[in-house]
Amino acid sequence: MKYRDEAEIKKELGIESWRHLSKDKMIKFATMMPDMDTEVALKIVEQFPAFKDFAKDAVSAIERAHESTLSANNQSQEHVHRACQDVRDILRGELGKDNLSWDEKKFLIEQIQETARMQFQKDSESKHFLDGALKRVLVGATAALALGVAFVGGRAIVETMGDSGDSSGS
After folding, report:
1. pLDDT tens profile 87-130
2. What SS3 class is residue 36?
3. How far apart (Å, rounded) are the C-alpha atoms in residues 27 and 25?
4. Where, by residue number, does the polypeptide cross the bilayer (predicted)?
5. Which of 26, 71, 92, 102 sits in a 20 to 30 Å window from 161, CA-based?
6. pLDDT tens per residue, range 67-83
7. Which residues have CB under 8 Å from 43's CB, separation 6+?
């Protein structure tokens, strides 16, 4: 284990106390959990009484950011497709003129093909971007879920330990 006590974890997070744990640092805390001693992680998570609210807020914030990103990407895609279509409409109009030389016709056809290549490239970039955005959302949601599992699991372990301690003492 890389982290054996709370002090090391607070130092890594750059905080003096758990009251200073922001949402961003909470996500970092979640990514650090696999490197923590289990007892230390459970002890820390138990100190967050409003953990459920935090986890819901974190997932909602991730969801809103993702929706905003998708919307902006969609608007950008639409703008590019509309612009390319406008250019092709103009090029088709020029191509329909009777007094064009073979070289002029060839140039116009090449320009039409170029707009199609531009759209294809933009579509590929968009798909790559969306793939990366989805991965970031999954990482954030997984971190929030990991915190939730640790919190719920930690409470269950603590409650079980408490129950077994009560029954053996009676």
Report:
1. 989 889 998 898 989 999 899 889 989 998 888 888 888 888 87
2. strand
3. 5
4. 137-158
5. 26
6. 887 888 888 888 888 98
7. 6
Is 56 domain-assigned? yes
From the list 121, 144, 134, the residue with the least C-alpha distance to 67 is 134
Name 3's bridge partners. 36
Any domain includes 113: no
Q: How high is the pLDDT of residue 101?
A: 92
User: What is the distance between the alpha carbons of residues 150 and 147, in angstroms, rounded to a whole number?
Assistant: 5
Q: How far apart are CA 8 and CA 15, in angstroms?
A: 10
Domain holding 151, by residue range, is 49-78+121-169
In a domain, 18, yes or no: no
The number of domains in the chain is 1
Residue pair 29/146 in contact (Cβ under 8 Å)? The answer is no
